Amino acid sequence: MADKHGDFTWYELTTSDVAAAQDFYSALTGWTWEESEGQPGMPYHLFSADGIQVGGMLPLTEEMKANGAQPAWMGYVGVDDIGKSVAGISAAGGSIHIPPTDIPGIGQFAMVTDPAGAYFYVMQDTSGEESHSFAKTEPRVGHCAWNELMTSDPAGALAFYGGQFGWTKASEMDMGPMGTYHLLDHGYGLGGIMQKPDDFPISAWTFYFRVPDIDKAVETIRAKGGQTLTDPMEIPGGDFTVGGFDPQGAHFSIIGTRS
């Protein structure tokens, strides 16, 4: 399926320990790694699933840390016109933290937040390469399988992202005390939006990466120094999910079947 405006096209980890993160995620997801040219003195690390590039990783610099940055996962949303997109985000109550910036040979990106403060990137890719980072139509181990926003304002988020990227609400699920889960459609099941729990400090995106066996993955997380927040929980369709933190403190989630 060809990329279009509003697709998630890339996932990126910033971390305090590149070597340890490579070891952790390689064991967890089977990703393989290669180094790419990044900023001077700060190489960029690409990771692949079955030979297909699905994301990247870069080290936290001292400048990033001084500005409050911590290990974290972020997603890139593809746009047709980054100047128009950034202006629209700002006009709709979002904020621009890094203005449109060139990536030679690839395109332009900008770091933004939605009106509730959830960070993400927008990216105008002019390389002509199709993204395979998000598995849009079928389960693919090592690829992102779901994009989930926990936010202080679900109704506002639905309006904001719908207006900026054309996402629509496909349906909803009653989650009892946790409120309503809003399922997003973009020509395929893109993800969901839900009310953030009171003890969750900020509005933020979480990305679910697919693993072949959820129980073995949980064992790997714990054996490699990560933390799981729950035991595997079954979701509609028969998959199981677990959220957690990697050894450097970046929050992530996994999804997979139980053997």
TrEMBL record:
Recorded hits in InterPro entries, A to Z, give:
Anthracycline_SecMetBiosynth, Glyas_Bleomycin-R_OHBP_Dase, Glyas_Fos-R_dOase_dom, VOC_core
Residues in VOC domain copies: 7-125, 140-257
PROSITE patterns in UniProt? VOC
Query: By its UniProt entry, which Gene3D superfamilies does this protein fall under?
Result: 2,3-Dihydroxybiphenyl 1,2-Dioxygenase, domain 1
What's this protein's name?
A: VOC domain-containing protein
Give the originating organism.
Parasphingorhabdus marina DSM 22363
